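Q: Hi! First time doing this. I have a protein sequence and I read that you can turn it into a structure. Is that right? Here it is:
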Amino acid sequence: MNNTISAQVQNEGKLVLFDASKATNVSLSATNGATFKLDGGLLKISTVGNNEYPSVRIEGEWNISDFNQIEIELVNFSQSSLPVMVRLENANADPDNERGILLDRVSIAGGAAKSLTFPIPPKPPYPDVKEKLFGMRYTPYKLSGLVEDLDKNKVKAITVYLRKPKNDWEWAVKSVSATKGEPEKLVSWMNLPAEKFFPFIDKYGQFIHKDWPGKTKSDEELVESHKRELLDLESHKGPEDRSKFGGWKSGPREKATGHFYVKKIDGKWWMVDPEGYLFWSHGVVRVTPSTGVTPLDGRDIYFTDLPKENDSFAGFYKTHDELLYPYYVARGIKRTYDFSAANIKRKYGEDWRAEFASIAHIRLKSWGLNTIANSSDKAICMMDKTPYTDRIELKSPDIEGSRQDWWKFKDPFHPEFTKDFRRQLLERKKELDDPWCFGFFVDNEIAWGSSTALAEWTMQSPATQPAKIEMMKFLKKRYGSIQKLNSKWTTNYAGWDDLLKFQGELPDAAMEDCKIFTEVITEAYFKFVREEFKKVAPNKLYLGCRFARSNPIVLKIAAKYCDVISYNIYSRSLSTFSLPEGIDKPVMIGEFHFGALDRGLFHPGLVETANQQKRGEAYRVYVESALRHPNIIGTHWHQFSDQATTGRFDGENFQVGFTDVCDNPYPETIENIRKVGYVMYEIRAKK
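A: Yes, that's right. Below is the predicted 3D structure, encoded as structure tokens:
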């Protein structure tokens, strides 16, 4: 989509780069499912969910060298808070490598019209330091999302976009201006030359060049913090009206089956624990000592005091997280160090694994939590103290042409699909027989693509692809002859073998058939998983695939086969969450979190808050909104402890833990977890 409109310059400390109500030569275009129109002095934008980066681009020519801020006037016609990415670009911009751009994120509340400002920071004096920082989503030179590598004399474009939105949005841009404000100061460490900046990570995995409340300075401080926490846990033993499994002992009682199940009661979905008490899953993902594993390859200069080979802490070069280890292998990462587990050993002594496992259960109960969510240490899960869930990622052969964020889409028609899934289930025989385990997620954040994507990806796969062979059967039955298919598709395949071997893009005329067969693949995926799951684990809940993006067709099919539909939803609240019309199923929130930048990490996670106090309050608001939703039966925070300051396998270095890398709880967050956790059943039961 392309258009030409007007905009003009201004004075008095402001340069108007774009004004939707005025006219000069500015070119507009849209990509990735975004559309726009000029209406009432606004550039009104519609973006469709499940597109990667729906955007509108404003092309012009501006010199903003006299200014140090960008001001954007936005309108949000939707009711939820909307994060908008704003990117200024030079002619030679390379956004993927963060060259020739200024990028930041602003957020506008639902239903608001507001002017928002972000800084254009000064250039750091030692760019060679910045060049050495890699393997982190945000670095000490890229705080809170801001990227600044722009030649301010030659700005050629302004792009506004959403980052992988899950929902459809209606919003608008009124104007974009360069302004003058209080000069932005570089943080202190950006004025350090390389020889003083490196190393920048201490022996505990913390940032050296900053102090904050709770930062660990010595081994003795670790031991003292443990003693203080024991006093806190002793004075907060947990809610009193809880059953053996964490259910609502004071509430109504249902049939006891010895296993967890789901039931709709008085218009609200609940879980029921093995003793028949109503249960709402209040939990946390990745209860493991190894959340602080970070790659070392090519980055030794980052770290001080890494242990020598014969040191008692050298073993932490080898420890790893069971679930995430394959991701390190797939990326060819050779050397890592586990800062979190090393600190736990310093804190608890030689028997650190057992001590950490024991206190994990005590903490969860004290904090008002009742679930160890997926991707956690199995030894901790299976102590028969806290209910837990697990996650299985299918390892059978892929649909080769598929495109995914994590792994390619598995071919449900491949003979290894059910066979391999059965093997994975039976490897968990102890969990399948354990009444403390309430169920399994199968797969995670599958990228379903458009309503035709699975079939298109299938056609772009080799002729030996089982799903493609199945698609040929479908098309032969539908058309009878290749000539009839050619007539409908406006193609000229010589025969069915010619079509089977074809691996290119299909014409628009084929999309009707692709939509139907995409549904066939989706149906096969959920049907075959459920059938095998219930053969092997009839008493466990099939918790779905943890949707990050989906579409109504996929959800409708999932609802037929999943006991519970699961979502990973990173937002401020679930008050506007709804299932598509006609679907009434229990819903589990598999992931959510909030973070801030006041405790030494460089990235606040997917939903940023101003500080630790606001972070804790955001937790309480989110969980309370879930408790009030009739379909939602639980929330699982991601994750138990912070990620490594210098990033994990994919660079994630989020401040999203209940505890920091030194295993110290964040008091502001714990206070708010308790506030909602101790009274959650009363909130849930309210009409």
